[in-house]
């Protein structure tokens, strides 16, 4: 499950002995104390409409990018 990020950027360096994905980076554009709501998300450049990611997606490496806003987007993550 995805919750609102509190950092602008975090990178997981995957152990190459177990995972070939390299790094998995999480970026939160416009995150602040006021902008604590997810407006939209992308996984490896593609829109992510669900409020979760899988272990497999993480270990393949890539980027999870959030656009943050001051108000919640009540449509994001509701179309399953």
Characterization of this structure:
The chain is mainly β. It has one domain. Helix content is 6%, strand content 36%. The protein is built from 1 helix and 5 strands. It has one helix spanning 55-59; strands at 9-13, 23-29, 37-43, 46-47, 62-69. Strands 1-2-5-3-4 form a 5-stranded mixed β-sheet. β3 and β4 form a beta hairpin. The radius of gyration is 13 Å and the shape is globular. It starts with 8 loop residues before the first strand and ends in an 11-residue tail after the last strand. The mean pLDDT is 95.
In short:
The protein is mostly beta strands. The protein is 6% helix and 36% strand. The protein has one domain (14-69).
In the sheet with the most strands, the strands line up as: 1-2-5-3-4
Give the integer mean of the pLDDT values: 95
Helix vs. strand class: mainly beta
- The coarse overall form would be globular
Radius of gyration: 13 Å
Please describe the biggest sheet, giving its number of strands, its sense, and whether it closes into a barrel: 5 strands, mixed
Total number of beta strands: 5
Helix content: under 10%
Total helices: the number is: 1
Number of domains: 1
Unreliable residue runs: none
Fraction of residues in β-strands: 35-45%
SSE order, as H and E? EEEEHE
- First-to-last CA distance: 13 Å
């Amino acid at each position: 499950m995805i919750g609102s990020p509190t950092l602008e950027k975090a990178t997981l360096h995957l152990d190459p002995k177990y995972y070939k994905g390299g790094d998995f980076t999480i970026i939160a554009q416009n995150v602040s104390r006021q902008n604590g709501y997810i407006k939209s998300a992308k996984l490896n450049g593609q829109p992510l409409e669900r409020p979760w990611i899988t272990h497999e997606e993480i270990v393949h490496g890539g980027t999870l990018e959030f656009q943050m806003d001051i108000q919640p987007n009540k449509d994001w993550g509701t179309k399953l």
